[in-house]
Design a protein that fits this description.
This is Acetyltransferase. It comes from Streptomyces dysideae. InterPro entries: Acyl_CoA_acyltransferase. Pfam families: Acetyltransf_8. It is built from three helices and seven strands, in the order ββββαβαββα. It is an alpha+beta fold. It has a single domain, classed as Gcn5-related N-acetyltransferase (GNAT) (Aminopeptidase), CATH 3.40.630.30. Strands 1-2-3-4-5-7-6 form a seven-stranded mixed sheet, with helices on one face. Strand 4, helix 1 and strand 5 form a beta-alpha-beta unit. Helix 1 crosses helix 2. The N and C termini lie far apart (32 Å).
C-alpha cells in the first residue's frame, strides 16, 4: 500500500545565505527541484536535487512523513569538501524553510564513497543499507534537534 500526500507542496528553495550561489536548473518534474550550487567566492559546483520522499524510491525504505525531504547530490571530481560545507548550511535552511519537515534523507549508491563522505561531513548520520530498483544504496538522515534529542529508551517513556 502506497501512502500519498497530494496537498503537500514540493520542497521549498533553501535560503543558503551569502556564502553560496544557487542557480535553478531545468525543472526535472514530479516535484523535483534541481540546482547548481557553488561557493560564492568560487569553487567546484555541486548539482543539488530536492524531492519529497513520497516522490523518490526511498519511500520504500522507511515510514516517511509527508514533509520529509530527500537530497541528491551529483559531485564532480574534488567536490567532496564543497558538498560537505553545502550540506552543513543546507539542512538548517531546509528545516527553516519548511518547519513541518521532520527528516532530511539521502541515499547515495553503496559504491559512491565520495558522496557518502560528503553526507557524513555535512552532519548526516549513516542509518542503513537498502536495495532500491536502481541498485544498493546507503541511507543517511538528518533530523532537527527537537526530534533527534527525544529519548527513545523505554525507561524514559511516560507510563
Amino acid at each position: 500500500m502506497t501512502t500519498t500526500f497530494p496537498d503537500v507542496q514540493p520542497p521549498p528553495e533553501p535560503a543558503l545565505g551569502d556564502g553560496w550561489t544557487l542557480r535553478p536548473l531545468v525543472d526535472a518534474g514530479h516535484g523535483v527541484h534541481a540546482y547548481a550550487v557553488a561557493p560564492r567566492g568560487g569553487g567546484t559546483p555541486v548539482e543539488l536535487r530536492l524531492y519529497r520522499v513520497q516522490h523518490h524510491p526511498l519511500r520504500a525504505c522507511y515510514p516517511y512523513g509527508a514533509y520529509d525531504i530527500a537530497v541528491g547530490l551529483v559531485l564532480v571530481q574534488d567536490a567532496e569538501n564543497t558538498a560537505g560545507r553545502l550540506l552543513n548550511d543546507l539542512v538548517p535552511a531546509l528545516f527553516a524553510a519548511d518547519p513541518n519537515c521532520r527528516r532530511v534523507v539521502a541515499a547515495p549508491p553503496e559504491d559512491d564513497t565520495a558522496t557518502q563522505a560528503a553526507f557524513e561531513a555535512g552532519g548526516f548520520r549513516r542509518v542503513a543499507e537498502a536495495d532500491l530498483p536502481a541498485g544498493s544504496v546507503v541511507l543517511f538522515t538528518a533530523e532537527p534537534s527537537w526530534l533527534a534529542d527525544l529519548p527513545t529508551a523505554l525507561d524514559d517513556m511516560p507510563h
